[in-house]
Amino acid sequence: MGVQTSGRLDWHRVWFAIGVLLMAWILWQALRPDPAVALAFPYGDKLLHAITFTCLMGWWGNVYRTHRGRLVAAACCLAYGIAIEVAQGFDPPRDADPLDVLADAAGIALALIFLRTPLARVLVGIETLLRRRSSDPG
Questions:
Q1: What string of H, E and C letters represents the secondary structure of 17-41?
Q2: Residue 36: what pLDDT?
Q3: What's the pLDDT tens digit per position in 4-14?
Q4: How far is CA 126 from CA 11, 15, 74, in A?
Q5: Which of 5, 67, 89, 103 is in Cβ range 3.0-4.6 Å of 49 for a Cys bridge?
Q6: Region for residue 64 given its phi and psi (left: phi exceeds 0; alpha: psi -120 to 50; beta: otherwise)
Q7: Cα separation of 13 and 1, whole Å?
Q8: What's the Rg (C-alpha) of the chain?
Q9: pLDDT tens profile 113-124
Q10: Cβ-based burial of 82 (10 A; exposed 0-12, middle 13-18, buried ≥19)
């Protein structure tokens, strides 16, 4: 099922800023000595990486809606995941784990699949709803 992906969002700058804040929160969580979010079962941290990067790529895939834009966003998300692992390698309570990058990549790939569904239009839908509400006289 294809989804129309052309056109720039009306509130592009707002969505971009929220995406940057999301990335800052992820970085903060990744570099904390004891992260506040954890899944306490075997490989729970890998699942958390995959979920986090599915959401991150899903966000950027809603902001950048062209095929090329999404490929660039995917590459940037993967580079971001690698950079986090490198930074964790210099942080004594944390450690770098190549399997975390693999989990990040799996999350990005899953998001790219989800972006072929109506989930690709979440931000468009929010903008449309808010536009309707602001023009509603009642």
A1: HHHHHHHHHHHHHHHCCCCCCCCCC
A2: 64
A3: 456 789 999 99
A4: 10, 11, 23
A5: 103
A6: beta
A7: 29
A8: 17
A9: 999 999 999 999
A10: middle
